[in-house]
Amino acid sequence: MATALSLSHLGSLMRGVRSVDEVGAEERAAALAKRSIKKSSKLWALDLAIRCMDLTTLEGSDTPGKVAALCAKGIRPKPGDVTIPSVAAICIYPARISDAKAHLRGSSVRVASVATAFPSGQSFTSVKIAETQEAVAAGADEVDMVIDRGAFLSGDHEKVYDEIVAIKEACGPAHLKVILETGELGTYDNIRRASILAMAAGADFIKTSTGKVQPAATLPASLVMMEAIRDFVRETGRPVGFKPAGGIRTSKQAIAYLVVLYETLGADWMTPERFRLGASTLLNDVLMQIEKERTGVYQSGDYFTID
């Protein structure tokens, strides 16, 4: 289980955070995204993308019926084709946990719930802790929390750190993914600092975005976060997972993230235990691309259920 660093160790770690070469990060991300892969590797990558997917619905209009349909799709993305794996998790609001839990019973698909005043993070710490505890009590296997970006951008890193530590404790056995909301952090240096801070506080995963703010996930921001994970592991010996989320809609984009992941963190991160893709509309495109790779012919989206 992840444990937080001491404040003295945190201070040492944060003082050692190096500045990000902005141009270099963007050029490296762009170069890696252009990498082409062979057909057999592409099919493997598409299969992995599904296995690492957090199939997500986070709308005010979510209903028990919508969650039931999403769970069915997560368990069997393409009915009748047992070669297509289940997704990693269904990601929902806390009020829908019991619905998801009931429909996922007996499957390998986990229940991930957003919490901590998602997506703004602007509430009392006591409220965030209570929401997290209730989510876990309702059956959440994983909790996706948002950091207080206002506190972080004001320089109150200790408040952000303490809140993550408290939420991690409230998670109990559930895994904690910490959402940075990179589109609001302003600079790559801030993204790197927030990544180190979240990991030092005990995050099991760090995640780019809520999907509610633009820009959401980008390859350069993701590369900065992956490099922070790489350096954190070298410093502490504790591996941390990574989850890009928001705006990842095509197979080509998903494969680009997998290429950057492999080149930055290596084969040990090519697993649902250390990598997730937050997605609400990606799955159908991946299914169509798999069929195209297998048969040479694209299928219409009409052949697949709506995510």
Description:
The chain is α/β, with parallel strands linked by helices. The protein contains 12 helices and 8 strands. Helix 3 packs across helix 11, helix 6 packs parallel to helix 8 and helix 10 packs parallel to helix 11. The longest helix is centred in the C-terminal third of the chain and has 18 residues. The radius of gyration is 19 Å and the shape is globular. The mean pLDDT is 93.
User: Topology as H/E string?
Assistant: HHHEHEHEHEHHEHEHEHEH
Strands of the largest sheet, in order across it? 7-6-5-4-3-2-1-8
Poorly predicted sequence stretches spanning 5 or more consecutive residues: none
Structural class category:
alpha/beta
CATH architecture: Alpha-Beta Barrel
Q: What is the end-to-end distance?
A: 33 Å
The share of residues in extended strands comes to 5-15%
The shape is globular
Share of helical residues: 40-55%
- What is the mean predicted local confidence, pLDDT? 93
Q: Tell me the CATH topology.
A: TIM Barrel
Secondary structure: number of strands: 8
CATH class: Alpha Beta
